[in-house]
């Protein structure tokens, strides 16, 4: 992993904060001078917040916004939302079916992602996809509570659980 | 013309809100029907996350001024809800809450014994 300068990381934190600020203060009927005033206040507050937090926010600063990563991230969003919708129909089936078809257990799978943020994103994706919930991450091992255990084998279970996510997240974070 | 578009967006928004409330109801039924902590956590996390997301998007479509705010709130919910769920599940495991007796496999116990 490349080391980046502090100014780079500071600028990245500032950009993130100012985008969130604009999202919260913007509304369609707003007057222009009023929006400019709020924008100025936002710049001041974002500078203060960024000064306090830039060292904790990111390791790679503005490189997070490179076109390759943003493009793969945009491609990842619909995959993720579709997995979430499938997960909810799965939950609906298991909750409403009278037989209550569950066979829970904790399985272990492995990942080859190295970046901690990438690992976190994969854990989040696993939690929101059908029937699985991350319980613990130790190095490259994930302990996953599975509501219906299809396979106890590490590799086979990994292929079912991770699905396409690992491919996309590798492009985004590595 | 723009009034028609706004009306259509409002109708879509109400549909989104109905779907969201249905999933929230489903999450609470799941809390009653599931046998142990971990399975309850599963249903509660997934169904409430999509339910809340859907309600927020619906509100944003009904009143377009709220759309940026509701999208930001939705992003925060998607990022934080799963972390909360895994932290709770892990904490209850470490505290000694047993798995349901119908469970088939527990690899995590083996890991703890190896330590």
UniProtKB/TrEMBL annotation, chain A:
Q: What is this protein called?
A: Cation antiporter
> Which UniProt keywords are given for this protein, alphabetically ordered?
Cell membrane, Membrane, Transmembrane, Transmembrane helix
Membrane topology of this protein: Multi-pass membrane protein
Which superkingdom heads the taxonomic lineage of this protein's source?
Archaea
Q: Where in the cell is it found?
A: Cell membrane
Q: Name one Pfam family in it.
A: MNHE
| Main localization, broad class | membrane
Q: Which residues form the signal peptide?
A: none
- Annotated membrane-spanning segments are none
Extract one GO molecular function annotation from the record.
monoatomic cation transmembrane transporter activity
For this record, an example GO cellular component is: plasma membrane
Record-linked InterPro entries: Cation_antiport_E
* Transmembrane as UniProt keyword: yes
TrEMBL record, chain B:
Task: Give the matching Pfam families.
Answer: PhaG_MnhG_YufB (PF03334)
Single GO term (MF): sodium:proton antiporter activity
Q: Which InterPro entries match?
A: PhaG_MnhG_YufB
Q: Which PANTHER family match?
A: ANTIPORTER SUBUNIT MNHG2-RELATED
Q: Return the protein name.
A: Monovalent cation/proton antiporter, MnhG/PhaG subunit
Organism field: Aciduliprofundum boonei (strain DSM 19572 / T469)
């Amino acid at each position: 992993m490349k080391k980046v300068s502090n100014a780079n990381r500071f600028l990245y934190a500032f950009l993130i904060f100012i985008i969130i600020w604009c999202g919260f203060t913007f509304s369609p009927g707003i007057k222009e001078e009023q929006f400019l005033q709020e924008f100025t206040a936002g710049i001041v507050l974002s500078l203060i917040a960024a000064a306090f937090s830039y060292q904790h926010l990111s390791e790679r600063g503005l490189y997070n916004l490179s076109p390759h990563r943003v493009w793969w991230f945009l491609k990842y969003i619909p995959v993720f939302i579709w997995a979430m919708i499938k997960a909810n129909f799965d939950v609906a089936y298991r909750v409403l079916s009278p037989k209550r078809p569950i066979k829970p257990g904790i399985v272990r799978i492995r990942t080859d992602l190295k970046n901690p943020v990438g690992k976190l994103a994969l854990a989040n994706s696993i939690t929101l996809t059908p029937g699985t919930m991350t319980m613990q991450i130790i190095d490259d091992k994930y302990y996953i509570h599975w509501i219906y255990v299809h396979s106890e084998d590490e590799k086979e279970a990994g292929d079912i659980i991770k699905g396409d996510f690992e491919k996309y997240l590798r492009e985004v974070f590595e | 013309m723009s009034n028609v578009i706004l009306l259509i967006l409002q109708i879509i928004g109400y549909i989104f809100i109905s779907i969201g409330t249905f999933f929230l109801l489903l999450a609470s039924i799941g809390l009653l029907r599931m046998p142990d902590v971990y399975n309850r956590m599963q249903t509660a996390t997934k169904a409430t996350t999509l339910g809340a997301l859907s309600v927020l998007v619906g509100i944003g479509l009904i009143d377009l001024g709220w759309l940026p705010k509701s999208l930001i709130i939705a992003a925060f919910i998607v990022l934080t809800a799963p972390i909360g769920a895994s932290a709770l599940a892990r904490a209850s495991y470490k505290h000694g809450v047993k798995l349901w007796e119908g469970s088939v496999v527990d690899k995590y116990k083996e890991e703890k014994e190896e330590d």
